Each structure stands twice: as C-alpha cells, then as structure tokens.
Amino acid sequence: MLNKLIQGFTICFTILFVLLGCTQENNFLQEEYAGLFLQKILTGSKAEKFVNRLHSQQVSSSKNEIGFYEGKNGKAVIYITYYETPDQASAEGLKMIHKITPDNKVFTMGRFFDLDGRQIYRCFGMGQTHFIFSNHKQLFWISVETIVAKPFLLTFLTAIQ
C-alpha cells in the first residue's frame, strides 16, 4: 500500500515538473555566469524606466529585463529586449550599433566578430566591455568588466543555446 502511494506521488510530481517545464519561458538571467552572481532583476515598467533614464530619453517600448551580476572578479549587467520576430530583434540591434558608432566618444574600438556562427558586436567604454547581439526574438546588450568579459560571454552563450 505504501509503495503504491509513493509510486502515485512520484508520477504526479513527474507530470507536474514536465508541465512546468513546458510552460516556462527561457530564463536568460540565470543565477550565475563565470563566477558573477545575480544580485537583482528589473522587469516591466521598472526595467523600462531604468533603460530610459540611462539614455536620458524615451528609448524603450518593448518588453525588457535587466539582470545585475556581481562577484569577486567584477560586475556585469545583461539587458534583454524582447521583440515579435527574430528579424525585428536583429534590425533593432543594428540600429543600436549604428547609433553608438563611429563618432561616439563613450564607446570605442567597436567591431563585429563571429563566435560559433553568431555575429557579435564588441566595443569598450565606461571601464567595461560591451557585447551586442540578437538571439531569436531577443536583443542582448551585455556590459561586463573587461577582466571577466570573455568567460562571462562564453558561459552566457552556452546557457542560452
């Protein structure tokens, strides 16, 4: 009797976990990347206000998430904007890149590079390395202290594939 009860609970929990897994969105803001740990997440209107305040004007109109990371090797911020289509995410990323190049004095030495078939724009500014790229319907801007930039990007890309 006890074995059948345990077996029944096991089946119920298995079904529950499968159903929950099917309904969750991608969690791009995981607890840790390259030794930097998630400290805070902004979503919805708080994320929109943060992005607009950062630019001193209204620039955000889509769904946004921002993850703030920190660890012994530094800090990072992941900005995510969600779009309706992959083409829209890519086009908006190119618009953003064109706005910060070439005469921008805040972001310097910008260039595209290919990493495992993915085009990523990298530039430097404000004491950080910045990576801009789209992934399906998302546009990512990652700002990370240069000392941990490469491992942070690599672990992030591995996690979102």
The shape, in one word, is: globular
Task: Give the biggest beta sheet.
Answer: 8 strands, antiparallel
Low-confidence stretches: 1-6, 8-24
**Could you tell me the strand content as a percent range?**
35-45%
Derived from helix and strand composition plus strand pairing, the structural class reads: alpha+beta
The total count of helices amounts to 4
So, CATH architecture?
3-Layer(aba) Sandwich
What is the count of structural domains?
1
In the sheet with the most strands, the strands line up as 1-2-3-4-8-7-6-5
N-to-C series of helices and strands: HEEHEEHEEEEH
- Fill in the CATH topology: Protein Transport Mog1p, Chain A
- What is the highest CATH level, the class? Alpha Beta
Average per-residue pLDDT, rounded, comes to 82
What separation lies between the terminal Cα atoms? 44 Å
Q: How many beta-strand elements? A: 8
Helix content: 25-40%
The radius of gyration is 19 Å
